[in-house]
């Protein structure tokens, strides 16, 4: 029978994988795994694990695929555990069964069968504990926490997240830590604490980038985009969401694509482009239906569709989607979905005069919201933040507690001894003396251990300090090298007499840099001054390394190839930079954004890659927009455009990277933003260029306050 099932699976495999595109390497792994399943002479443990491996490869194809393959592994493992095999083989079957239970629980969760999902997760957890599989244990703690969190039980969710985090930190599971930080961020988001939400989402993203996990990275970007969307920073949200969608399309993550389409629909709804919003939501719904998903995302999606139809005055359709979303939320126990759909139905019923229904929906919304954002949940969030510190302090305090208890007992013993006979007093005295001796020995031993620990810590601190000094010295030397490629101040003042450059690296070295080259212009009896500001990928040491490559590209374009037109210089620089990075065996996508100007007597030529040119004339800003493509690898690149602009006396020219406008600060910790920077420049046009530099710098430091500088800053200003 098993042979027949294996042959059937082999025949159906192309149907399972139709929704997902595989690389040649992935397809080779799938074929190899399937050959193991197809070979009936293989051991049952090998067959069971092959089913599980195949379910992992086809994870994004369909929930039916995962469910079928995991159930096959479950059947084989359960049968194997019934046979009297040796202990090693049984352990292997138990591990396979734990994984199968976890996968089946995952499918049930996304189909909305929450009780079944929890049941399978707990079964998997029990088996993982028996086999001491710490990866399996931490995964189940995480999955159970997710379900409790979705049901509004934040206390229970954080309890399991805490257990999960401790194991993942212990075993150094970076992928797992990325997931758990993301989930903790979700709980902060439900409580409305967006600063903490963003902090944990970015912690998660840093781990995803570290291990190059594109699926997690796409989810991180999607979540961070949601925070910025909530903060009404729509452009920033759109950037994160588009990046997330591109990654998901690249890796064939169908479920993730549905989430991205839902996000982009929110942008369209915000801009009141309702038909476009519905198109995105319809794409997402189609994917969920193909995958057989019925999790918390589906009720949320139906609620969004309902809201769009309500805005389009299609009340009947709006009610239909809203009630379906509410029904699914109640069935699956996802309180967030109940709250969102109830609030939506309140407004719809209110608009058509159905006051009774509207009131019941509003009461349901308020009750759910209060249960999720209650004081107990807020306290659990705070407790989670300090739990590790508490546990560490508790261990230290326990010795002090023991000491106090011993002293207390001695005092009680002394008081009781006064009521007894002299002989008993002597016995008590001797006994007390013995206790004191033992206690003194205990205290002395603890003191000796503490002293040894201090010596070890001091040695470690000295080693760390030494390493830090060596690293800092190396970076300081790198700074001297980077400064050597920047044009000296006397050269800048020689060719741009009435100008300033504000250069503020975030770290010791920077990814931003400025560049200058002077070319004789015999036709006009003068010279053409080329100058630029550039923002390379990253900052600190990585950004500085990229800046050296990009600076060299500019120099070669002008000095070696004799180019003077800004657009052509950028074309050649892009070509050189890509050639340099293609020498690496890895796929390097680094590069830079740049604004490049060619200034002659009464004219300026400009070309830009994502950095604009501003000219202030008579109290107004004339902006020349850049090409929306970086210097580096880019899909369908086009030649850079050279723009020409006549100049008149009194014109002020500004080019700058985005670090100044992106700085957080002020009373509310918000971004400075480009519009505020624009107003600042307009307000000081009567000042000299040196005073302008001082005002810009002082304004930045005052705005930043005690907050950390978020990016490198480079600004060039020139007065005609």
Structure description:
The longest helix has 64 residues, at 422-485. This protein has four domains: 1-16 and 25-113, no CATH class; 271-373, Serine Threonine Protein Phosphatase 5, Tetratricopeptide repeat; 391-462; 487-719, Phosphatase 2c, domain 1 (4-Layer Sandwich), CATH 3.60.40. It is globular, with a radius of gyration of 33 Å. It has 25 helices and twelve strands. β4 (592-599) and β5 form a beta hairpin. Residues 1-24 and 388-409 have low confidence and may be disordered. The protein has 720 residues and is of the alpha+beta class. The strands form three sheets. The chain has a five-stranded antiparallel β-sheet with strand order 1-12-9-6-7, with helices on one face. It has a five-stranded antiparallel β-sheet with strand order 2-3-4-5-8. The protein has a two-stranded antiparallel sheet with strand order 10-11.
Low-confidence stretches: 1-24, 388-409
Q: Report mean pLDDT, rounded to a whole number.
A: 79
Radius of gyration: 33 Å
Decide which structural class fits the backbone: alpha+beta
The number of helical runs is 25
Outline the secondary-structure elements.
Elements (H helix, E strand, L loop, with lengths): L1 H15 L7 H15 L5 H14 L5 H20 L4 H24 L3 H17 L3 H17 L3 H18 L2 H17 L3 H17 L3 H17 L3 H18 L2 H17 L3 H18 L5 H15 L3 H18 L2 H17 L3 H18 L2 H43 L4 H64 L3 H7 L3 E6 L7 E10 L4 E11 L3 H21 L5 H17 L9 E8 L3 E7 L3 E5 L2 E5 L18 E4 L5 E5 L7 E2 L4 E2 L2 H10 L5 H16 L8 E7 L1
Antiparallel strand pairs: 1-12, 2-3, 3-4, 4-5, 5-8, 6-7, 6-9, 9-12, 10-11
